[in-house]
Amino acid sequence: MKLLLQSFMVASCFISIFSKPLSKECKCWDGYQPNDNGSECVGVLILHVMQCNIPQAPRCKCSGDVSGILSDKTGIWCTTYKSGKELKRWECENKTEWQKFFEKHPEYKP
């Protein structure tokens, strides 16, 4: 009986140790926080849910007459449009910041 009880205690301890998922810290972007069980990030002021631990890309910094930011297979660009046509395109001013991001996370490179 004593051996049976010891076996049961060892087995239950073993099960409790290995049944818990390996918790990985859920890191969220600014404006998001981990949900109650830490499985995803939930927007604080917006209704949006995203995965944990997604690297946040830098914002493209542009000066001058900028209509928008364009991301295509050739890169990320500052652009000027008029009447629906692209007039001008130039690289983000924080190009080195983007290069560092893509070196660290090549899977996000366009």
Largest sheet: 3 strands, antiparallel
| Count of separate DSSP helical elements | 2
Number of strands: 6
Oligomer designation: single chain
First-last Cα distance = 66 Å
Work out the strand percent: 25-35%
Uncertain stretches: 1-22
Structure description:
It is a single chain. This protein has helices at residues 2-19, 95-104, and strands at 32-34, 40-43, 49-51, 68-72, 75-82, 85-91. It has 110 residues and is α+β, with helices and mostly antiparallel strands. The chain folds into two domains: 23-54, no CATH class; 56-110, no CATH class. Keywords: Signal.
Task: Give a summary of the structure in a few sentences.
The protein is of the alpha+beta class. The protein is 25% helix and 27% strand.
List the helices and strands and how they pair.
Elements: H1 2-19, E1 32-34, E2 40-43, E3 49-51, E4 68-72, E5 75-82, E6 85-91, H2 95-104
Antiparallel strand pairs: 1-2, 2-3, 4-5, 5-6
What distinguishing features does this structure have?
2 domains; disordered N terminus; 25% helix; alpha+beta; 110 residues; three-stranded antiparallel beta sheet; signal
